[in-house]
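Lecture 7 notes: from sequence to structure.

We start with a single chain of 658 residues. Read the sequence below before looking at the structure.
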Amino acid sequence: MRTHSSRQPRGPLRHRVATGATAALLGLAVAFAGGSVTPAAAAESSSLTGIVLGVGANEAQRTVSWYSSADTAQKVQLAPTARLAAGEFPADSATFDALGAANIASSGGYNRNATLTGLKENTAYSYRVGTEGNWSPAYSFTTQDFEGAYDFLFLGDPQIGSSGDLAQDQAGWADTLDVATKANPKAELLVSGGDQVESANNESQWTSFLAPDQLRQYPWAATIGNHDVGGKAYEQHFSTPNTDRSGALYANGNPASNTSGGNYWYIYKDVLFIDLNSNSYATSQGGGGDEAHTKYVTDVINQHGSEAKWKVLVYHHSIYSPASHAKDTDNKARRVDFPTTFSKLGVDMVLQGHDHSYSRSYLIKNGQKADPAEQPGAADVYPGPGGVLYVTANSASGSKYYDITAPDSSGTSGAGNGADPLNPDSYWYNSVQNQEHVRSYVKVQVRDEKLVVQNIRSGTCDAPNSEVSHGDWCKNTTAAQPVGSVVDKVSVHPYNGDGQSLQVEVPKAAPGEFGWTIDGYNGLVDLGTAKEENGDHFTASGKINPILVSDTRRTLSPWSVSADVSAFKDAGKTFAGSYLGWTPYVLDQGAGAKAGAAVPSGYNGKGDGLAVSRGLGSAPQGHARGTARLGADLDLKIPDTTEKGGYRATLTITALSS
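Now the structure, written as tokens:
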């Protein structure tokens, strides 16, 4: 009697599983997983307000903060937007438990916040806050590449309510965010210059500040201004990563008092951001003063500076600016306390607010102009060791502008406000200064080889422009200086030391793939003519055509290859596939391959043999990438009652990968 086993039709076979598939049955079927949706439950009574998206500790995190009228356990529900069905979140959406406490009496209600972790790059997400039966509306944000170039927007002093016209302040603020994000839809961060509101605990002003939906779509990196510091509402509204709330970083030295404070830092792609509470500057107030900040910056840069290409500091009180605050006693003190430390630590740029006018400094080293020959308004600057660029943002809402002030005879270094020898109408430290009484924002492009800083108009003299609407002057001309036009632009090139700097851009590696193929010609596996044994059964043996496995995935996820055999048939005659067994082995090592267990023939009631799926080879999580060849010896035992004939069966190969 002659028996045969065959696989697939003749010819080359190639089966692949894309990285990320949960499971794939090659040659048989592909399994897809789907999620069901959760029906909306009856609404509860708690109102959910003040929702704001915040920056996380890195690009794979975000924070969400909000107010609740009821003291109930709450959470954030998160899912890729593509998985929502008719606006409903899938039942297996990720959830993140919220923290929080009661608000101060003037705010009312309770504050909540949660940190979203494990975000994937280049993904649109939807989220909502609350609890089952009482969810907020859904909002969305989109992550970009977690490596490489990106843009962020720096926004100075909305100070909602400072004009006395809350509605127009809100309208100007909303218009700037609308203009800026429409012009830069892939901007990845909104960075605050401080003074979100006029009065620290005025919730009407906070409601107006938080009204634009961009604050739920782009992460807001909050900064404490002098108008924010006098109450707890700032801390109630914003959750910030890696925050140090020790007493030294509060102006009065008391974190438990009805004030806000603390410093924080985060790394977003190639930038280490450090945000300071510059309201705490003098030890006579009770806090640690500027010395506590310089120690904090030193510690963070020493611990994390090597993890980023650029170092950017953010705080509210501008030490190099063009308007009236440039001559404030406290800013003169900071101008002495900060610059030498920043230069020594290799800080690249400092972003500031407070003076409601735009300026960018010359490169400042150790409290003086780094290069006396640097020209005003230079388009490209090269810091050299210790040079730092300081940028002050104008009002982003139009609620208040400060006019540029004139230099005096107090000196051209340190705390002085003397004239620039190259431009006597400006302070010695300012390369560019501007005030038109129009709204603007600062765009920063982060690139491997430079930082590009632009101040861009987001309004004109026309409304919404609160201060101008209420009678102040404006010299902007819409035709010559329209919305979106650039006030100033400079590229900051990194210092590369005394030698030459080499750079290479390494693109993202292809995700790779897992696949298998018949090694060589997919011929018929001929087990030959069965031999009678012991007068009660027949035996036959052979080897499968080797299976070549290739795994080039970066994930190093597990994989396995298995097989099962159909019944053997010859026209109307048949016998069970369970009579076939095998002994797998690895012919060529690679891709972490390990041989499957031997499976005996099911003859004489010894099991199912290969009639059920059996492992040929596999590899665990973390295995090396590469290729392997898998083989197996076949062992067939059948009863001698089997009719004479030439029998064939199909061996179906199945591959699974995570």
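The helical segments are 166-183, 203-209, 214-217, 233-237, 289-304, 329-337, 339-344, 466-469. Keep this in mind for problem set 3.
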